[in-house]
Amino acid sequence: MYKAFIGKQSTKVKNTVERLMVKRFAESIGDPHPIFVDEAYGKKSRYGNNIAPPTFPRVFEFGDIEGLQLPSKGLIHGEETYHYERPLLVGETLTCYSEITDYYEKEGKNGLMGFFILKRFGDDDNGNTIFTEEQVVIITEAVRKAMSV
Amino acid sequence: MSTLVAFQKGESLQSITLDPVSRLDLIKYAGASGDFNPIHTIDEEATKAGLPGIIAHGMWTMGNLAKLFTPYYEEGFIQDYKIRFSGMVFLGDILTLQATVDEVTDTYTVFHVKTVNQHGKEVIKGNVHFAKHQKST
């Protein structure tokens, strides 16, 4: 039962904002702006460095929550929220982890739907949280039954 | 280029219409993001999952929408970016990115943002809280 996972935190994983990953990512969303990809431009910018696009943490790993098994298929991504204290800088390393902050069920068109609220964090070396990410992930009754949970 | 801080409530940024969504767009995003869920790249897997065809990663669409703000990073940055995924995006869809000012204060501007397809349907929708850099005195 997924409710038991509310409040559970994952292991922590270090992720570096790698220059080439930022370039590939920016290109893949059609946004290869020099603030992301041009080193000289980044140095001259107010950040003194290149930065990463706001949805870049998609490439990060956020650790595993012990015992939690989500289906690899059939999940619906309902909502996504990012919060930043400042943009991420190319070259910096963040300590990332996740937490299940809520789980509830609602009757929908396709039966009983489960809603996960997953929160993710990225902290700097001093333990300051630089960004958070919150996802609402919906798991349908068909998928839940197939997993017998 | 006009500066973003000059925008007033009700005004819109210049919208951007993307080229039709291609399979290569989604293959590139899968590789760049590490999201290899095959419903985004392989026809048979999408069909098996009950979809009419492969669909774009929601996060690809969300990533695209943010580029309306990229030219303005010298003025501020995206502090909050919230999106609700409301429709599927298929190959060949023609998406338009839109942002309209909802609120202006001394320290931030809030935009309603959305991406609509060629039928005028919203596929993602939400808001951007753009924090303005404070001038050092």
TrEMBL record, chain A:
InterPro entries: FAS1-like_DH_region, HadA-like, HotDog_dom_sf. Residues 4-132 form the FAS1-like dehydratase domain. This is Acyl dehydratase. It comes from Salirhabdus euzebyi. The lineage of its organism: Bacteria, Bacillati, Bacillota, Bacilli, Bacillales.
Automatic annotation (TrEMBL), chain B:
InterPro entries: Fatty_acid_synthase, Fungal_FAS, HotDog_dom_sf, MaoC-like_dom. Residues 13-119 form the MaoC-like domain. Gene3D superfamilies: Hotdog Thioesterase. One of its GO terms (molecular function) is fatty acid synthase activity. One of its GO terms (biological process) is fatty acid biosynthetic process. GO terms for cellular component: fatty acid synthase complex. SUPFAM superfamilies: Thioesterase/thiol ester dehydrase-isomerase. Keywords: Transferase. PANTHER family: FATTY ACID SYNTHASE SUBUNIT BETA (PTHR10982:SF21), MALONYL COA-ACYL CARRIER PROTEIN TRANSACYLASE (PTHR10982). This is Acyl dehydratase.
